[in-house]
Design goal:
Elements (H helix, E strand, L loop, with lengths): L13 H4 L1 H12 L4 E4 L1 H8 L6 E5 L3 H10 L3 E6 L4 E6 L2 E7 L1 E5 L6 E4 L3 H6 L9 E2 L5 E2 L4 H6 L9 H7 L2 H13 L6 H9 L9 H12 L4 H10 L3 H4 L6 H13 L6 H9 L3 H10 L4 H9 L13 H11 L1 H14 L8 H7 L1 H4 L9 H5 L7 H16 L6 H11 L1
Parallel strand pairs: 2-5
Antiparallel strand pairs: 1-2, 1-8, 3-4, 4-5, 6-7, 8-9
Helix pairs in contact: 8-10, 8-11, 10-14, 11-13, 13-14, 13-18, 14-16, 15-16, 17-18
This protein binds adenosine-5'-triphosphate and magnesium ion.
């Protein structure tokens, strides 16, 4: 309820009582302005969940925020000045301080903004009711649009007309699924879902960076499996994923991660969802503008080793740990199991294979190029060839031969 006093107080929460947060809010208020925390920090604070970054909304204009912060010896970065955002750094922590605003004209991300001192106007330009909660320095929560009721009911609802809000910024379609996957109980808000489905064609206008950022969070959210299924059923996944989706493999991978207490891996999940061939990896990689390292993970999905139908024997498993490294080995075996006909997260042989790198670290080949050359091989490609031969011999004997045995073997073949 707007202006209600029945909202719980956030007084005493560590992020709010920290000297840095109190300092930033106090410095702005000492200039005669109002300043309140907003968005994720208030939402998660009310739910008792972990806090990430702290966003602050203020009636002060950006120039005033910068002047006041500098005068108080706080760090200042002009990160998003065109939409009224200044990053203030206190105690090495960044605070995104944004002047209250209403969006007068929107072309996707590039909204023309008008500053205001009206908290309700600022709330209306935000995406979901649960994201339009504010908290002042004393811990008092302000709720101009009744978002608290939705938060407690765990409903992700657009502010205002869902279709209008999506047309202003198509990223809100992905944010709708991301926040529902993170915070909702029950299904998707029906009105929001229908609007997302109708306007899905607008997703093509989004920058690849924004897709990457939002999809990474969506795919690792608590209820990502359901999000993917609902997005697929409503034609939304097809607008952003340039490959045939495999929701079952995706679900199984999340189950494997849970069974082994692995941290959700966004790129591995994306590989499970959409990569069968190298071309899939390239297309998805382009659509999501992934880094080289991320592309390497996507490409694992195209590997033959991601398609094992039975758990690898100990020998071939060790060989894979040695050649792929422990992280990619785990990923490949997980992709194999997720796609296997006899899928089970309790099969002891698969579990043993998945957890091999926890028990066994691949040794380093105990001989080097210098050892090869000491046996008369001239510097050049022949050294590498000889090393590869001795390495294969060593691996075939399950990494058991010692350095002396390897040197003896080199002598034999020299
Ligand atoms: P978290 O940081 O935990 O992911 P958050 O709610 O803080 O969640 P941010 O992306 O940091 O999310 O955005 C901060 C706030 O800014 C949001 O809570 C919301 O009020 C507003 N906001 C962010 N992006 C949009 C958008 N595309 N459209 C409308 N409002 C937005
Ligand atoms: Mg945030």
């Amino acid at each position: 309820m707007p202006g209600s006093d029945n909202l719980p107080s956030l007084a005493g929460q560590a992020w709010l009582s920290s000297a840095a947060t109190q300092g930033v809010l106090a410095v702005i208020e000492a200039g005669g302005h109002q300043a309140r925390a907003v968005g994720g920090v208030v939402r998660n604070g009310l739910l008792g969940l972990a806090i990430t970054d702290i966003d602050i909304a203020t009636t002060a204009l950006p120039q005033d925020v910068m002047r006041l912060a500098r005068a108080a010896d706080l760090g200042v970065a002009e990160t998003g000045l065109q939409h009224g955002t200044v990053t203030v750094i206190a105690d090495h922590r960044p605070f995104e301080v944004t002047t209250l605003r209403r969006d007068v004209e929107s072309h996707g991300r590039h909204a023309t903004v008008a500053f205001t001192d009206d908290w309700t106007e600022d709330a209306r330009r935000r995406d979901f009711t649960m994201n339009a909660l504010y908290c002042d320095r004393s811990g008092r929560v302000h709720d101009p649009l009744g978002g608290y009721t939705d938060l407690i009911a765990r409903r992700v609802c657009f502010i205002g007309d869902a279709a209008d809000r999506i047309r202003e910024d198509y990223l809100r379609i992905l944010r709708f699924f991301r926040f529902t996957a993170q915070y909702a109980e029950g299904g998707h808000d029906a009105v929001g879902l229908l609007a997302c489905a109708r306007l899905r064609g607008g997703l093509a206008q989004l920058s690849r960076e924004r897709i990457h950022q939002e999809m990474t969070r969506l795919l690792t959210a608590r209820r990502a499996v359901e999000a993917v299924m609902v997005m697929q059923a409503h034609g939304i996944l097809a607008e952003i994923l340039p490959a045939a989706p495999r929701p079952t493999v995706f679900r199984r991978l999340t189950e494997i991660e849970t069974a082994l207490a692995w941290k959700p891996d966004a790129m591995l999940r994306l590989a499970a969802l959409g990569v069968v061939t190298s071309e899939d990896a390239s297309r998805i990689g382009r659509a999501f503008k992934v880094s080289r390292a991320e592309h390497g993970i996507l490409d694992l999905g195209a590997s033959e080793t991601a398609r094992l139908t039975t758990p690898p024997s100990q020998g071939s498993a060790r060989k894979l740990v040695y050649t792929q490294g422990p992280d990619n080995y785990r990923r490949l075996i997980a992709l194999s199991l997720a796609g296997a006909l006899a899928y089970s997260t309790t099969d002891p042989l698969w579990i043993a294979a998945l957890t091999l790198p926890d028990r066994w670290a691949a040794p380093k080949l105990p001989v080097t190029g210098a050892d090869v050359m000491a046996r008369g091989v001239a510097a050049g490609p022949a050294v590498g060839d000889a090393l590869r031969r001795i390495e294969a011999w060593w691996i075939a004997r399950d990494f058991a031969p010692s350095r002396d045995e390897l040197l003896a073997q080199l002598d034999l073949s020299a």
